[in-house]
Structures are given as structure tokens and as C-alpha cells.
Write a structure and sequence with these properties.
0% strand, 77% helix, mainly alpha, 13 helices
């Protein structure tokens, strides 16, 4: 067994024991061992990138041996060096994907600033590419970027990202578009609705939900993923909450009822909060 494998096992045991000093020591030693053992070959360097991503994503409050941000950056840079033709579409695509993965790692560590930076890099890279799959990947990145910016209060920047994501979703809708692709437009509208809620522009938020619900109701029956009904029900309840803020009690009651009718049969305990909100809205909006 290699030193790094042994240290990883010891690190996991230390996490179970909960001693922060030992956890810090073993985390730093594991990272050092990974770097020293890594072969100077594509396979070895790729394995090192995997190891760094693994320790960066591990749910323990320690930055010994390198912060999550630093390890994610190092992993991304390693993967970028493995690409032999900088500037080619494949190089750009792989670099963008690595940046997106790094953003996900930083999200798991509740590091919104680091997440923002990697989403920004990924979006800039994907904008250089033209394929349908790359445009879809850009839409996903921009949607995530927009949500982070909303949470950080950067609403103008969020609006730019989410408007671009909506435009990309609309570009996918053609004669041969799938129900899932058409539903992506609804998702983009719900994210713009979240932005308008943050701005407390209830009319604009409801306008986006109105468009999202039109699409979602039309496409849901043709979709095979059972989560579509959960998403539609949650969308109805969110829209009902906005209608309540508008003072439109009739619409609020109708949407809350629709959402309840969709969610209750699913029997999902994770939906208890949404159903409780729906019940509150229906009570407040009752004639």
C-alpha cells in the first residue's frame, strides 16, 4: 500500500474520531504524499488531480495543506496542462468543464466568492465554443452563476447572466426540440423570477412565473422524469406566494391549491415545508 493510501485511511479514521489537530496533520501529510508520489505522466498527473479534488470536496473543516480554493485551482491547472493543444476547442472545453467542477467543490465548502470566480472562468471558456452541447453547458453555468450572484446581492450582474441563460434556452427550442429542452425555458424564467423577488418587483416576478407555468404545464405530461411534477408543484406554490404579495388573493388561492394537489400525492417528506407554505397561503387568500 502506498503512503498516500495509508494516510487517507488514517485521515478517515481521524475524521471519525473528531480530533481537529490530528485531522489537520493527516490532511496536510496526505496532500504532500499525493504530490510526491505522482508520476510525471498523463495518468499520474490525472490521478493527482483526482486526489486533490477528493480532499478538497471532503466535508471536514480543515484547510491544512491547502485551502479548498487552492486545491481546486491546482487540480484544474493540472488538467489543463494535460491538454496538449492549448487554444483548440477540446482544450477550451476541458478547461471549462474543470472550472465548473471546481465551482461545485467550492459550493460544497460554502465559498461563494471562489464559486463565483470559477463559474466566471467556465462561462468565458464556454462562450468560445459553438456546439449545441457547449451552448447547453454555458446555459447551465450561467444559471448557477446567476443564483450565486443573487445570493451575494449583485443583482445587476445576476440579471445579465440569467437573461443570457434564457436566451440560450430559447435558442434550443426548434422543431425537433425535446420536452426537456422546451422546459429549460421555463426553468430560466423561474430563475429570473427569483431575481425579481430579490428586487421586490412582484409584477415582473409574476410575469416570469406566468410564462414558466404555461410552458411547464404544457410539457410535463410528455416528460418521463417523475420529478417534473414536484418541480411544477413547487413552481405553483412560489407563484402563489408572489400573488399574495400582489394582493391577488384569487390567483394566490388557485395556485396554492394547484401546487398542493400536485405535491401531496408524491408523499415526499422533503416537501413538507412547501405544503405548509401552500396551506398558509390558502388560509390567507381564502374568500
Amino acid at each position: 500500500m502506498s503512503t498516500s493510501h495509508q494516510l487517507w485511511d488514517e485521515f478517515l479514521a481521524a475524521v471519525d474520531d473528531g480530533d481537529p489537530t490530528v485531522i489537520d496533520q493527516l490532511r496536510a501529510r496526505y496532500i504532500e504524499a499525493c504530490r510526491s508520489e505522482a508520476e510525471d505522466s498523463p495518468q499520474g498527473q490525472s490521478a493527482l488531480a483526482d486526489q486533490l479534488e477528493r480532499v478538497a470536496a471532503f466535508p471536514v473543516d480543515s484547510h491544512a495543506g491547502g485551502s479548498c480554493d487552492d486545491l481546486a485551482t491546482e487540480s484544474m491547472e493540472i488538467r489543463a496542462r494535460l491538454l496538449t493543444d492549448p487554444g483548440t476547442p477540446e482544450y477550451v472545453r476541458q478547461f471549462a468543464a474543470a472550472s465548473h467542477r471546481s465551482a461545485a467543490l467550492l459550493k460544497s465548502w460554502n465559498d461563494p466568492q471562489g464559486q463565483q470566480e470559477f463559474l466566471r472562468i467556465a462561462s468565458e471558456m464556454y462562450r468560445q465554443l459553438d456546439s449545441r452541447n457547449d451552448r447547453h453547458a454555458l446555459k447551465v453555468v450561467l444559471s448557477e452563476y446567476g443564483v450565486v450572484l443573487i445570493e451575494e446581492g449583485q443583482l445587476d450582474e445576476a440579471a445579465a447572466c440569467l437573461q443570457e441563460a434564457l436566451q440560450l434556452a430559447q435558442e434550443q427550442v426548434g422543431p425537433e426540440a425535446t420536452p426537456e429542452e422546451r422546459s429549460d425555458v421555463a426553468v430560466a424564467h423561474t430563475m429570473l423570477a427569483q431575481l425579481e423577488v430579490a428586487r421586490e418587483d412582484w409584477d415582473e416576478a409574476m410575469s416570469h412565473y406566468h410564462m414558466a407555468l404555461q410552458i411547464a404545464r404544457r410539457e410535463a405530461p410528455a416528460m418521463t422524469d417523475p420529478r417534473v411534477w414536484k418541480n411544477l408543484g413547487s413552481m405553483c406554490i412560489n407563484a402563489a406566494w408572489i400573488a399574495l404579495h400582489q394582493g391577488d388573493m384569487t390567483t394566490a388561492h388557485a395556485l396554492a391549491t394547484e401546487g398542493t394537489d400536485l405535491l401531496e400525492p408524491l408523499g415526499d417528506p422533503n416537501l413538507a415545508e412547501a405544503l405548509e407554505l401552500a396551506a398558509t397561503i390558502r388560509t390567507q387568500a381564502s374568500p
